[in-house]
Write a structure and sequence with these properties.
alpha+beta; Beta-Lactamase; Helix Hairpins; Heat Shock Protein 90; seven-stranded antiparallel β-sheet; five-stranded mixed β-sheet; 15 strands; 50% helix; 23% strand
Length: 405
Amino acid sequence: MYKDTVLGIIDKTSHVSGLDFLKSLVLALNELTDFDFVFVAKLEPDTWSAQTLAIASNNALQENFSYSLKNTPCEEILDHNYCSFERNVCVVFPKDHLLKDMSIEAYIGYPLMSVNGQPIGILVLMNKSPIKDVSKGYDLLRYFARRCESVIEQTELENNLNITKTELEKAYTVRESILQNISHELRTPLNAIIGFSDLLGSSNLLDMAKENVKEYLSFIKGSGEDLLSSITDIVDFSALQSGQHTLEITLQEINSLVERCINSKRKKYPNIIFETKNITGKVYARTDAIIFEKLLTNILDNAAKFSVPGSVVKTEISLLKNEQLEITVIDNGIGFNQKDLENLQKSLTFDINVQAKKASGLGLGLAYVKCASQMLDIAVNFDSNTGKGTCVSIVLPSGASDTVK
């Protein structure tokens, strides 16, 4: 009888693979045995739950579901490698409401293990009435467990490969956007330098008006500074992303650090009004001054770039509960719509794909913010509305600050 059942299951599953094999297996076990329910589930260790991959009853596939493993016989399987009850399983596990709802009386479960010996799932037979002998059910589960294990691992591997593929495609798109922006931002000042140098070189300086010479030299100097700034941004971002920058965490006075960043932006954006609201006295935080200043200046840059002349960019410093320190940058610029804001929160590369098309810049600003915030263990949060502006908050972790009155 056992041999005939095994051969029957093999016959019904030999022509399929992957998740289709699991579906065919539970259907075959349900049809060729006396068990009312058969399912195979994948373990979700982070939430200590299981997600069914295939479940059958009444000779038909049923809708998959997830459930908590706590206080269930499935939890016993993972602890003891095998679990079976000929009767009264609901009495043994009174907190397993799923068993009660399904009126389960008998239960046989077998663990599914990875090649490294870690639990990855379970294969289960359940019946509404008691059974006399669990050994045959156990033998069936053990016989087909290896194939189920390989399917689950293969499916997980394919899912991870698809995730990696998607991430690589996104990274490629971002890289292409960065390269296009870099090409444009380097070529523009170079063309200006070459063009005005040619004008000076091809003209008799004695015949040129002094004002024209000064103007050309000013253009050359400004373009050179823009070029140097772009190259510095590229080098800084590359060093940060590749891990070449060694963190130097020291105690920094935040009021003066923020004011230093804002003063540099006042010179760069004379048509933008920068306001500050600092904490009375001195407030300190342990951070890498170079990386933190660059992070904050990039946020200030984005706020100023996308604000019209005469707009206000406001920076506030405040102490939160649990001694957390928050620096908030608020502008009334173009803002983001909800979809763009969600993308921004996920990747912090929105400026590369969209913003860089609307204003000058390499598009590395928020990408740098992402890398820097991860390195410094700093939370960066965005809130924005189209046409109303953006609020960016930087929150240093608990215990990072110390206020001195």
